[in-house]
Structures are given as C-alpha cells and as structure tokens.
Amino acid sequence: MKTINDYTHKKILVLGLAKSGVGAALLLHKLGAFVTVNDYKPLSENPEAQGLLEQGIKVICGEHPIELLEEGFELIVKNPGIPYHNPMIVGAMERGIPVITEVELAYQISEAPFIAITGTNGKTTTTTLVYEMLKAGNKNPLIAGNIGTVASEVAQAAEGHNQIVIELSSFQLMGTPSFRPKIAILTNLYDAHLDYHGTRLEYIKAKANITKNQTSDDFFIVNAEQEEVMNVARASKAQIVPFSPVRELTNGAYIKDGWLIFEGEQIMQQADIRLPGAHNLENILSAVAAAKLSGVQNDAIYQVLTTFTGVKHRLQFIGEVCGRLFYNDSKATNILATKNALAAFDKPIILLAGGLDRGNEFDELIPSFKNVKAMITFGQTAGKMENAAQKAGIKTIQRVDNVGKAVPLAYELSEPGDVVLLSPACASWDQYKTFEVRGDIFIEAVHKLK
Known about the structure:
- This protein has helices spanning 18-30, 47-54, 87-94, 102-109, 123-136, 151-157, 170-173, 194-197, 200-208, 227-234, 280-293, 298-305, 335-343, 382-391, 403-413, 435-449; strands spanning 11-15, 34-39, 58-61, 75-78, 99-100, 114-118, 141-145, 163-167, 183-186, 219-223, 239-244, 253-256, 259-262, 265-269, 316-321, 324-328, 349-353, 372-377, 396-399, 419-422.
- The chain is built from 16 helices and 20 strands.
- It folds into three domains: 11-100, NAD(P)-binding Rossmann-like Domain (Rossmann fold, 3-Layer(aba) Sandwich); 104-305, Mur-like, catalytic domain (UDP-N-acetylmuramoyl-L-alanine:D-glutamate ligase); 316-449, Protein-Tyrosine Phosphatase, Chain A (Alpha-Beta Complex).
- Helix 4 packs parallel to helix 6 (151-157), helix 5 (123-136) packs across helix 12 (298-305) and helix 15 (403-413) crosses helix 16.
- By secondary structure, the protein is an alpha/beta fold.
- The protein has a nine-stranded mixed β-sheet with strand order 7-8-6-9-10-11-12-13-14, with helices on both faces. A six-stranded mixed β-sheet has the order 15-16-20-17-18-19, sandwiched between helices. A five-stranded parallel β-sheet has the order 3-2-1-4-5.
C-alpha cells in the first residue's frame, strides 16, 4: 500500500454503505481523514454502521440530511448505486465538493497495476477468466470489485508483483477522475441502466471512463464488431487491441480455421473450449488478449479454457438428473443475455423465465425460442412472457409462484437429453433481493431432485 497524505486531517463524507462504503470509510480513517458516514438505513438495523461507530468513525443513519453538506466536507465518496440526481449529490456538486467512488481511492493507494473490465454483458465471466489465466500463469493476480473483495481492501494488501483484476460497472466508473488501468477491456455496449444514466449516450460516456486516463504505455482491449465500442477506442490514447469471434483481424485476438489466435500466434483449438455459448467467445478472446499482454504462456491459457465451465449464475452447469441437464443463468437480467443463453444449446430446452416488470415486452425473444419445447413463467412479467411464448408457437406454457416450484415442474415436463434453463430475461427484485438469491434457490431445488 502506498503511503499518501492527500486525506490527512481532511473532512470526508462517505455516502451510502454496503461493502464499498465500509471499505472506503475504514481506509480513509487509516489515512488520517476525519470521516463521517451517512447511510439511509437506521442504525438499529445497520450492523455495518455500528461496526464503524465502534472504530471511532462518526456515523449518521436513518436519513440523508441535506444540511449535512454545510459541515465543510472537502470530498464525498459515494456508493455507486446512489444516482447523481440524488439531492445530496446535487447539493455537493453545487457547492463544488468533488464526488468519487471507492475504486478511485483503491487506485490511489495501490502498488499493483490494474486490469479493469467493463461492458454491458460478459464482465463477470471475462474478469474470472483473466484472473484464472493469470493465476495459472503464476502472475500473482488478485481479484476485486463486484465479484470479489472490495477494491480498497484488495489494494491495501497488493504489492508491486501483483496485478489487480477488477470488474467495474458504469456506476463505479463515473467517480474515477484519475483511475488508470494498465489493461482495460470493454466487452460490448447495449442498452442498460438508462433509468440511472438517463440516455444511452451518458451510459456510454460512463463506460468510456475506463480508458480516459490511459496513455500509449497502456492497452485497451475492445470488441471489433461493435461500432460504438470502436468509437470509444478511437478516442483513447492507449494501444488498441481488438478482438472478434467472426473474422480474422490484422492484430489482436480472433478465430481462424478453428484456432484461437493472438497477434498471429495459434493459442489453442476452439473445439477444446469447455465454456458453452457463442457469446462467450467474445469473453474468451478478450481474456486471452489480456493474459497474453500480461505474459501468460499458452499452456496456462489452455489449462483454464479446457476446465472452466462458467461463473456461478452465468450459464452455470448445475448437474444432470436422470439425463436432464440443468443450467443456472440467473444473471440473465435482460433480453440479450437470455438470447445468448438460448443460442448456446442445440438441444430441446425447458425455459424458466420472468421477473421484475420494467415496462418492456418480450417479442424480441421469439426468434430465439426455436429450441424451447416448454416454458415455465413466474414473477411480474409472467403474462408478458406467456404472450411471447404463444406467438412463438410453444405449446406447453405453465405459470408457477416462484423459481423453487418451477424446478420440479420442469423435471416433469422434460425428457432425458433436454436442457432445463433458468434464464429469466428480467431482474429479480420483484421476488428476490438479488439474482444470486434467485439462482441459489434454483440450485437448491435441483439438488433436491437429485
């Protein structure tokens, strides 16, 4: 951990807790700042805030009082989930108080370089693949961010011989004025989080922050098949490393004659890859590029790609029950993710789908239903899902109360050789706190069948 004096004796407000807020508050306290934490959850229901109070950190819970901004704070560290139109953030910006996220703090104190991954889909799988490849190649990686320990904790433990592999959301990237990864990856760009960002343009601008501070000494790995991604790349000062699963490139990572290629070198045969799904080829190619740029040998990459079958809740193979193959894709919280999951299989599918209603219809999924022999729906969008299924000519459509009840019904409707796929195409918040909870209930129900 670098020793910095930037925050010594400075008044700093940490707005919103969860893991990143706790990590930021503890780090700033260690760095000698006068920290105040403000969280909306009441103190009596807030063990994180109680723990900070015991550390001697000032805590204000139960509301976000706007008058708190009059206390002369020099910086606000914001929970990524708090939107910029929140009155506290608006008030801070009107007063000229800088607003950052916890990732920026982690970067400032880290002795290790960062490999940062963002994009609409594929972030978690790509991040995990990069980490596993670097680990297999003895490159001493540490994993941080949305799928690991919060960045500020990891950065405190990191040394110069480490590399921090981090998954970053658009929310996190909006508060990173100096963050500069050695290697950045932008997997793809689709409509997402427009309720937070307002417009697609603002969403893309947030994602583009991953490369805004990179220089010609750094690398930016980008999806050559998306014009919007390439527009971001054209504005970058980093060395551009493209990838494409569908055509040969003059440089970067691509597939040719059944081989994964990086910079003209054959890495391994595509047929040996264990991870299912055509969409995962993008994730694999971008991870291979990051690994090769980090000096990982081909045998380490081969070792990972011949054994890695998926991240939990991302087209995760749960097991086989009397010939039925069960896959957990609870992370499919949008239509595109479910399209990709359906395209990964050429077997008959029993699809489990539904969830939070964000106002959209699901007719866009109809062309992807060609292998779906039955659909089981749940949640707020059950009716909309059923309408799309009927239009697609799916004959067996049944509704249940929840995911737990969907699994035994899917078993009854299926035959040996069928795929039972949880890929909801919707967020989980109508019934479950997170998509992880929804996926865990699916997994538990499958194990009960066994």
